[in-house]
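note to self — DONT lose this again. spent like an hour looking for the file last time. sequence + predicted structure for the chain T wanted, 163 res
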Amino acid sequence: MDATAPAPATSQASAQDAAAQDAAARDASAQHAATQESREDACSPYDVFARDCPSRGTLEHVTGRWGSLTLSAISDSTVRFNELRRRVDGVSEKMLSQTLHALERDGLVNRRSQETNPPRVDYCLTPLGHDVARRLRELFDLVEGRMPEVLAAREAYDARGGR
């Protein structure tokens, strides 16, 4: 091939895609730096990027598969344990119980036990829990709405043999 010949269209498109991805990464990095600066200006003693920051544990509880699904499932109303277990398809009773305890400890969920026969326990979100659940729902909506792009990216990745 002649070194002065124009590159094939697919190479140009790939180069343009790579340049666009690099630009997007630079923009994201700049936004992250600006966010860090504004967080530092706010004088918050918490930094999720710091190894020993207690916010990491809460972030793990909120963003883990069962925590995020549980918060979202409770966001619309007060629910009983078995209702919640049916709504969050695939979660075991033990895992749901552990998740609810962690979310209650973090102040995101209220547990109300009623002295009835049989005993009744209801779960609802605290104001903080509602705020977190609303933001998670926005993320869920974004991910669900962009799944065609995600699936196409996966297919392209797999077609080129991964890595």
